[in-house]
What we know:
Layout: H1 12-20, H2 28-39, E1 43-46, H3 53-64, E2 74-78, H4 81-94, E3 102-105, H5 111-119, E4 124-128, H6 129-137, E5 148-151, H7 154-159, H8 163-171, E6 178-183, H9 188-197, E7 202-205, H10 210-214, E8 216-222, H11 228-238, E9 244-248, H12 251-263, E10 268-271, H13 277-288, E11 294-298, H14 299-302, E12 312-315, H15 322-329, E13 339-345, H16 350-360, E14 365-366, H17 372-393, H18 397-407, H19 413-424, E15 456-457, H20 467-477, E16 484-489, H21 499-510, E17 517-522, E18 527-532, H22 536-542, E19 544-549, E20 552-558
Parallel strand pairs: 1-6, 1-7, 2-4, 2-5, 3-4, 5-6, 8-13, 8-14, 9-11, 9-12, 10-11, 12-13, 15-17
Antiparallel strand pairs: 16-18, 16-20, 17-18, 19-20
Helix pairs in contact: 2-3, 3-4, 6-8, 12-21, 15-16
Amino acid sequence: MDLNFNDLGLDEQYLQAVDRLGFQKPTPIQSMAIPVLLEGRDVLGQAQTGTGKTAAFLLPILQNIQPGIGCIQALVLAPTRELAIQIAQEAKKIAQFTAIRIATVYGGQSYDIQIRELKNGVDMVIATTGRLMDLIRKDVIDLDQVHYLILDEADEMLEMGFIEDIETILTHLPNVEQKGLFSATMPKEVRLLANKYLVKPKEIMINPSNRTLEEIEQRCYFVRQDGKFAALLKILEMEMVQSALVFVRTKMRAQELADDLAEQGYAAKAMHGDLNQKQRESVLLSFRKHQITMMVATDVAARGLDIKGVSHVINYDIPDDPEDYIHRIGRTGRAGCRGNAISLISKKEGERFHKIESFSHQTVIECAVPSRGEILAKRDEVFIQRLLDSMKNTDLERERAMVRQLADRDFSALDLAAAAFNLLRNNESPLPEEHRSPEKFSHGERSLKNGSLKEVSHISKKHGSSSRSKNKGEFSEHKQEKGMVCLKMNLGKKQGLRPGNVVGTITGELGISGKTIGKIHIYNDHTLVDVSENHVQAVLANSNGSYKVNGRPVYLTRVE
C-alpha cells in the first residue's frame, strides 16, 4: 500500500514540518514505525543510515510530548556526539511549529552550558551515555518524568561497551511507558537487550533492497597489505572522486592514512574518537561543504552520520561483519545517483571478503590495480580535455603572439606545443610505485596546482649558526608564491608534525579551503607555511593555541 504522511496519524503541525522539510513520501521504516509508536507500543527496528530512521521515531515521540510542563518527557540515547547533535538538529526542525524545547548533552561541551539549559526547562533530551551518566552523578538532571525512551544505533552502543551505562540509566527512569530500540544490524547482543527491556515489541526489519545495492558498482582489488596505499593512489588517479568516505579499522590508521593522502596532494581529513569536539565538527562541516574530498573514518566515528552526495565508499580495511560492509557501502548510490564501492583486500582479508560476497548476494567485480601506462593515458586524457576547455573559454591572443614570435625563429609548431606541454606538466606528482607502504613514500619536493597540497619536508643540516641567520637562510630558500604570505608555526619534525597536520590546523580552525595553503617546509623544531594573503589575518587571529597537534598547542606568526 502506497501511504502518504497524512495516512500515518500525524497532527497538522508535524505534517506542516514534514512538508517544509521536503519529505515527499514516507520511507518503509517511517510507514511501519510511526503508527506503531503513536499507538504506544514498544518497537525493535532494524534499518540502515539514510532510510529515514531518525524521523521514524522522532515524529511520533515528539507528537506524544506535552510542551510546557517543565519536565523531561522523552530521552534519546546515541553512541556518539556527532549522532546526538544530528538527531537534535532534526528534532528541532520537526518540532519547529510547536513549543517543544529540546536539549542535547554530550561530552566535549561545557557542563555549565548544558546544566543551564536543563534548568531552564526542556521537554526532550538527546544524549550520549557518558555525559548523561555524569549529569546523573552530579544530580543536575531529573529523569523521573521520562515516559518515552529511544536507543538509536543500539548495536554500536553495545560494541562500544555501553551496556552497563545503559542499564544504570534505565534504573533512573521509573516511569517509562514506551521504549524503542533501533539498530543498523541485529546481533544477538541487541536481541538480548530487547528481550530484557522491551515489552511485546513490534519488530520492524528494513533490509537494504537489492535495488538499492544495484545502484552501487562494487569493485575489489586484491593487493599486498604493504601495497594498499600505492594501490589506492593508483585507483584514485583513475576515478572521478567527488566525495569519498574511506573506512579503516583503527583511530591510528585513520589519522595516518588521512595524513598520507594529504601529503600526496589530496584534500583529506580523519574522523575518529581522539579528535576533540571542535575538530570533529570542523571535519564534518568541511566534508559536507565539499571543502575536503575524502574523510577517513572508523566505523564508530561514522556511525549514524547521514551525509549526502557521497560518490565513493572505499574499504581500505575490510570489516569483520558482513552487515557492517552493507552499512558502509549504503552511504553511496543514493537519490537515484550511481554509487561506487571499492574494497582493497589483503591475503589475510580474502576469506572475510568472500563471506561478505555470499551474504550480500551481489556481484563484486574483481579488478586489476591500474598500470603505469593506464595512469599516464588517463593523465593525458585529462590534460587534453583541459587544453580543449581552455581553447573554448579563454582569450589566447597574447599566447598566439608569443607562438608567432617563436615560429619566426624557425621552431616548428609541433616542437613548440610539445615544449609548452612539458612545461605545463612539470608539476604533476610522481607515479606511485608498486607495493610500497605509506611510510616508504618519498617526502620530497612537490608542487601540485589547482589547490592541492604543496609541501617540502626538509630537515636543516646547518649547525653553529645563530638563530637569526638560520631563519633568514631558511626563509630565503622558502620563496613564497605571489599572493601568499609566509607564516611560522612553532612545531616541526621533532614534535611529529606532518603536512596533513599543517593543513588541518589552518583549514580546520576557520573552515576555509585547502586552496588557501601554499608551500610547506617542515624543519626540526618549526615549520614555514604559505597562506593566501586574503586569509592571513583571520588565520593569525585564530592561532591562539586552542588547536593542538599531538597534544601540543599550535601558534602561528608572520615571518618578517
